[in-house]
Amino acid sequence: MFCGGTGDGQNRNIENACNNACYYVNVIRGGDFTATFRTSTDNDKNRKQSGCNIGSNGHSVCTWMPFSQKMHGDGLDQPTCDEFPMADWAQDDWVEGTPRNALRCMENGENGAAGNQWKNFRDGTGTDVGLEGRTCDGPMNDDNTDYTFKMAFNLENVAISEVGYCDPDQDNDQVLDFDEFYMTKFNSPNGANNFPFKPESDNHYNIASGNTNKDVMQCHLDLRRTSGDSYSVDYFNEDNTQIGEGAQQLTNDGDRLLVRPDDTAYAFLAIIRTGQFGTGGTQGSRVDFEYRLNEESDSSAPLIDFSWTTESTGYDDRFQNDSKGYCSVPDIFDGDNGPEQEIQCYFPCAKI
């Protein structure tokens, strides 16, 4: 793979695709991987059993909550899911307990550029640069042949910090990259991802960094704001079981209501005031939220932590059809004791 482009009209940088491939080869497979291509490979089946595509229509996991939120698909332009090994290649059926593919959300253009490099290599087209290392003549199109090859990564014209898993001098467990994930549970034959998340029947995914990984679930909260900037919140896990609650008056911007969950498999939940509550008929001031491993606001644990606001949006319209938001934020209404507002948010909660 030419991570900085081949220089033959395909100069598109594919650092993310390379890093995903290197994560699979060097971390999941420990440096030992031989790819196999055969013309009869079922591309659609491979995409679903990798976890990239879900359902009969092949919807991308990178645009559906909670995984689009945690795996950063929502921050990309035209996000797609990249799987390695590639869907064109021969692969065993998915087996629970071992990661079959490394997954990564990336922009469509980069994913397509990586695919084009492979197609040129498969078909024997393009310049000598793009075909470097190829030993067979002509296209790989014999129905009775298994074409096998090893992976090599050309790192010219790339920032080595962006392809840490390809860096031979880097310890994989020291790579500061938190965008890798893989499927750990599959609802055969097409996969499933409901909203709200159904842990008993939906696909499960782990987010990974080096050899460390965390199971990503979907939690939600119900927040109530009343006059005097009084905040109260109920905190629920993926089974819709309440695991925490809290109430506090937040009188100054930046004040935090911190909820310690009853279940230690989950992280702290923080609700942060950004302005005065507001008046009836408006959505009021923005509210910030944090799901975080550590109580201190100046510490970080990227595999666990997740931050969002009442204004955060993504690509999934199953919760908020118009805004595609993470939160339902109705207008403030006049209650028996003054103005009130009830907000609900869904968010990814990586289990500790």
Question: What's the SSE blueprint?
Answer:
Blueprint: H1 15-28, E1 34-37, H2 43-50, E2 53-54, E3 59-60, H3 67-70, E4 79-84, E5 102-107, H4 108-123, E6 147-150, E7 180-185, E8 204-209, E9 212-226, E10 230-236, E11 242-249, E12 256-259, E13 268-273, E14 287-292, E15 306-309, E16 327-328, E17 333-335, E18 338-350
Descriptive notes:
By secondary structure, the protein is α+β, with helices and mostly antiparallel strands. The chain folds into 2 domains: 15-210, no CATH class; 217-350, no CATH class. 12% of the residues lie in helices and 30% in strands. It has helices at residues 15-28, 43-50, 67-70, 108-123, and strands at 34-37, 53-54, 59-60, 79-84, 102-107, 147-150, 180-185, 204-209, 212-226, 230-236, 242-249, 256-259, 268-273, 287-292, 306-309, 327-328, 333-335, 338-350. The strands form 5 sheets. Strands 7, 8, 9, 10, 11, 16, 17 and 18 form an 8-stranded antiparallel beta sheet that branches. Strands 12-13-14-15 form a 4-stranded antiparallel beta sheet, with no helix packed on it. A two-stranded antiparallel ribbon has the order 1-6.
Name the average pLDDT: 94
The low-confidence parts are none
Radius of gyration of CA atoms, rounded to a whole number: 23 Å
> What is the count of helical runs?
4
Helix content: 10-25%
Major β-sheet profile: 8 strands, antiparallel
Number of domains: 2
| SSE order, one letter for each helix or strand | HEHEEHEEHEEEEEEEEEEEEE
Terminal Cα span = 35 Å
Shape descriptor: elongated
Protein structure class: alpha+beta
E-strand count: 18
SS strand fraction: 25-35%
Pfam families: DNase_NucA_NucB (PF14040)
Protein name: Deoxyribonuclease NucA/NucB domain-containing protein
InterPro entries: DNase_NucA_NucB
Domain Deoxyribonuclease NucA/NucB: 22-122
